Fold this sequence. Notes:
- By secondary structure, the chain is of the alpha/beta class.
- It has two domains: 6-140, 3-Layer(aba) Sandwich (Rossmann fold), CATH 3.40.50; 150-212, Arc Repressor Mutant, subunit A (Orthogonal Bundle).
- It is built from ten helices and five strands.
- A five-stranded parallel beta sheet has the order 2-1-3-4-5, with helices on both faces.
- The radius of gyration is 18 Å and the shape is elongated.
Amino acid sequence: xxxxxxxxxxxxxxxxxxxxxxxxxxxxxxxxxxxxxxxxxxxxxxxxxxxxxxxxxxxxxxxxxxxxxxxxxxxxxxxxxxxxxxxxxxxxxxxxxxxxxxxxxxxxxxxxxxxxxxxxxxxxxxxxxxxxxxxxxxxxxxxxxxxxxxxxxxxxxxxxxxxxxxxxxxxxxxxxxxxxxxxxxxxxxxxxxxxxxxxxxxxxxxxxxxxxxxxxxxx
Length: 219
């Protein structure tokens, strides 16, 4: 008999987490357990079955979402991570994806959007959204991080490659311009040219492209 997909939740906001657990159950999933933080989540993994998906809050005490995702990537890669946050923060998305998350959803999302995100992670291995280029997420785990020559085949010049590396940091575009000793307008030109050349629409997409092609290495 086919069983419903299993979900675990890690979030330090108890009322929100319990409400989310009820919603997830009502959507047809089996909630295995809940945790207040990443440290407790890892402990509960020792005494519970592994969930198919964990809804992982980013900002938590003791062990936050970034550290928990990185630990899971190294120790429990079979559990798919769907990152949860109150804020649509570009740097948070980039950091969580680099640490192994398969998607990202805001806590104020509609129930239908949450179900769609969970289903996408379960069936496709990633959750596609306007902020995240799904095709690139899908290929991150398969990339060869040791292929140092791959960037030579991308048709990018050295300045574009350096820009991509800096785009994967927390620097603003203006700070990237200062770092590269170029004007903000020139940096905007690099960004727009890469958007067009690579068919990408966001900074997150650029970073994922850089990760996929070995220009930026994951932690």
